Amino acid sequence: MTLGALILNYQLLYILLIAVLGLWAVVIGVQHWRYFVRQHPPVEYRPTANAERWRWSDPPTEITLRKDDAAGHSRLLLPDIRSGNSVVGSIIGYALALGGVALLIYVFFLAPPTDQSEGGRFFVSVFIIVSGRLLLDLDSRLVAIDLQPDCVIFVVRYGIFLFHRIEVRRNTVASFSGKVQNALAMERYQRNPHYYLFVQRRLSSKRFITACDPSQGSWLIGGLENWRAK
Predict the structure, then answer these.
(1) CB-hemisphere CA count at 13 Å for 176?
(2) Counting runs of H as helices and runs of E as strands, what totals does the chain give?
(3) Is the pLDDT of residue 131 over 70?
C-alpha cells in the first residue's frame, strides 16, 4: 500500500469517526429531550374560585411559578435561566451597540466638516449597532406576563439588564398556543429545550422564547386562553 493510499484511508477513518460521534451526540440529545418532556407532562389551568376571572389563578406547587397580584394587574413571574455563553454574548452585544452609538456621535457631532468619509462611517456604525442588537436578541427571554382586564403585557429581557414591555389588547388576539423546542433545533451546550409562546393576532403572529418546562408552559397557555375568553 502506497503512502498516499494509507493517508487517504486514515482520512476516511477520521471522517467516519467524526460522523459516528456526531450521530451519537444527536441520539443522546433526542433521548434527553424525550425524557425531559415525559418528566413534565401538561398541567391543567383551573381558575381560582370567587376571584376576578382576568387574574392569574394560584399556580400549582409542582410547577414552581410565582404570582404577584396588585390592584390593577396580575403578574406571573417566569423562570429566567442564564448560561455563561449567553452572558458573554450579551456583554459583546452591549459593547457593539455602544461602540456603534459612539461612532454615530463622532460622525454627526465631532468629525471635522471637511471629513469626506462620513457616509462610510455612518453605514459602519449602523452595521455595528444592528450586530449588537442581534446578539442581544439571541438571549431575549420572556420573564413575566402581566394580565389586565383588557390587555396583556409581555415583559421581555434583552441581554443582562434591558427589559421591553409589549402590550397586546385582548380584542386583537385570536388565540394563544405553545410548543416545546424541537430536539434537533437545540444548541450544542443547551441543557433543556425552550418553550415557545405564540400569540396569534388577526393579521400577524408573535413568538416569545421562555425558559419554562412543558408543564409550566401548558399551564400558562391555559391561563392566557382563560383570560382571552373571559
Answers:
(1) 23
(2) 4, 8
(3) no
28: cell is 443522546
Q: 94 and 171: one domain?
A: no
The model's pTM:
0.76
For 152-170, write each residue's pLDDT tens digit.
Answer: 999 998 876 778 899 999 9
The residues, any chain, with a CB within 8 Å of residue 24's CB and separated by 6 or more, are none
Asked if residue 89 and residue 72 are part of one domain, the reply reads no
Where among 112, 137, 162 does a domain terminate?
137
User: Cell 400549582, residue?
Assistant: 60
Whether 56 is in a domain gets the answer: yes
Neighbour-count burial of 112, counting CB atoms closer than 10 A to its CB (0-12 exposed, 13-18 middle, 19+ buried):
exposed
Beta bridge partners of 157: 141, 163
Whole-number average pLDDT of the chain: 81
Spatial distance between the Cα atoms of 63 and 212, rounded to a whole number of angstroms: 9
Using a pLDDT cut of 90, give the percent of the chain over it: 42
Which of the pair, 12 or 63, is modelled with greater confidence? 63
CB distance 195 to 213 below 8 Å: yes
Considering its fold, how many domains does the chain have in total? Answer: 2
